[in-house]
Amino acid sequence: MEENFNRRLEDIGNVIALEHINLCVPDQRLATLFYISGLGLTRDPYLVTSVANMWVNIGRNQFHLPTRDPLVIRGTIGLVIPERRKLLDRLRSIEGQLKDTKFSFKSDKSFVSATCPWGNRFRIYSPGKRFGRMALGIAYIEFDVPKNSAKGIAQFYQEIISAPSETVNFRGVVARVQVGEGQKLIFREIDRKIPAFDGHHIQIYIANFSTPHEKLNARGLITEESSQYQYRFENIIDLDTGNVLYKLNHEVRSLTHPLFARPLVNRNPNQTNNSYSPANEDRSWSMALPT
Predict the structure, then answer these.
(1) DSSP 197
(2) What structural domains and CATH numbers belong to the chain?
(3) What number is the average pLDDT over the span 211-238?
(4) What distance lies between CA 167 and its chain's CA centroid?
């Protein structure tokens, strides 16, 4: 039978999803202004609902925001949020309340750039072919990494985690790692000094849970045996020399983890008590495949 499709385009690799990013914040009120009122995201109504932490839903992904000293990603977080004009209106509406923080935003040609009250940087895109079916979610995290480290980082994820990885020259040397449908970790080599790692973490779900654990454990890289369904590691190393190339806390979960594929509530931020439309309270995380 004649083959009409390129089946390799649907290969994801061992990492099924980048599920959440954990960034501590010192003030839940300011976090609510930025993530909920400004970006238009949704506080999870079921789990972690007190003032010690905040889980914020964005499509099938989340931000976890414990109340502690702030943590800042050494790079940029790429988000997909629809309705650019309304996003800009929401960001303008919180300017006054965040004037004494690091908050800022700017409308660029292909994305909206924004900085949270504590300095985390975001690029916010409208849905499109670049992100597959994602209409709302975390599309990528781009990390600033030292010179001559990208190739080794790509090799680490490919061989240890079985995540499809490549090194390309795109405005500098970049390692790209696929971590779910339409999701990537990007490691960009820079000349500037990179701040010390402050402990922020990402969480991924992987299909083959035990083999990466065995490979990491054999090299002494496991930092936490969290539970039957979860472990952690931090150092990304050169597989030939053992030298640490970059530090990033990875929370690794199995597909049998109780929270895997938990449905997340995503509100429609355009709904208000003064302009309410029945049956339009929620927002879908996906859209039709691009033609």
Answers:
(1) P
(2) 10-197 (3.10.180.10)
(3) 98
(4) 20
Which tokens sit at 38? 């400004």
Q: Give the phi and the psi of residue 62 in degrees, each rounded to 5.
A: -145, 160
Hey, which bits of the chain come out as E strands? 15-22, 42-43, 55-58, 61-64, 75-80, 104-107, 112-115, 121-125, 137-145, 165-169, 173-178, 184-189, 201-206, 222-227, 230-237, 244-254
d(CA 257, CA 62): 16
Instruction: Kindly report the three-state secondary structure assignment for every residue of 16-28.
Output: EEEEEEECCECCH
Q: Is residue 136 classed as helix, strand or coil in its secondary structure?
A: coil
Residues 6+ apart with CB under 8 A from 179: 15, 17, 18, 163, 185, 204
Pairing, β 230-237 against β 244-254:
antiparallel
Contact 122, 79 (CB under 8 A): yes
CA 198 and chain centroid, separation: 17
Q: What integer pLDDT is reported at residue 3 of this predicted model?
A: 67
> For 87-90, which contacts have Cβ atoms below 8 Å and span 24 or more sequence positions?
87/39, 87/40, 87/112, 87/124, 88/112, 90/37, 90/38, 90/39, 90/40, 90/269
Tokens 């976090």 appear where?
31
pLDDT over 60 (residue 197): yes
Q: Give the pair of three-digit tokens for residue 276.
A: 């309410």
One-letter amino acid at 130 equals R
pTM: 0.95
